[in-house]
Amino acid sequence: MPKNIDSVVIKEPLRKQVLTLEFDEGDDILSCIKQGMEQNKIRECDVVDADGALTTATVNAMEGSKFKKIEFSNLKIMRSSGHFKVGGGDLWGSLHVFTEGRKPISGTVVKAKASQGFKLKLSFLP
Fold this sequence. Notes:
- The protein is mainly β and 126 residues long.
- 9% of the residues lie in helices and 58% in strands.
- Strands 1, 2, 3, 4, 5 and 6 form a 6-stranded antiparallel sheet that branches.
- The longest helix has 11 residues, at 29-39.
- The two termini are 33 Å apart.
């Protein structure tokens, strides 16, 4: 064991902050997440909520025991989750979505375009 061990006591809890990204018609979701994180100097964040629809999207999903690429358009997003990091000028991470409808789609976004007013909430530590 080392003789000198520095310790830090944190008296106040760290509070997560929320960044809400609001998209215009046709905005690319992943590039806008990267741009929003860079502009607000966020290195790491979690996706906590989505509100609105995607104009077009491609997701990777499991259907039974098969891996599939599913394309859809004009579907409202019911739930979303994910985690992103920005480093070396690149965006790392994934966005998972679950759509509404008779046959909901659940998968990891490969590419997506937003509809007017689509909102995505990101939480991060300052």
